[in-house]
Amino acid sequence: MSFALVMLVINYFQRQELVQLRNKPEVVVGGDIQKAELIDSLQGELFNSQNINGRYEMSLENLKMKHPQAAADFIYYMEHETE
User: Fold this and answer.
1) Where along the chain do its domains lie?
2) 35-65, pLDDT tens digit by residue?
């Protein structure tokens, strides 16, 4: 149960950081090469975030199979206590 709670907290903070990054206006100064490098780095960050999110989903599915009550508690907390 504590493992699920730790996963939820980590996921919450990662999502908060992504929201802050999305809301921050980014002014790109420079030529096409600098813009391409920025786009590449943002795509890399997006890939990493999606990868981590996928790992959380797989872990939750595994938790559902092994400990259904803990998974139900995790889902309830995520849906009702984190907003």
Assistant:
1) 2-80
2) 788 888 888 889 989 999 999 999 999 999 9
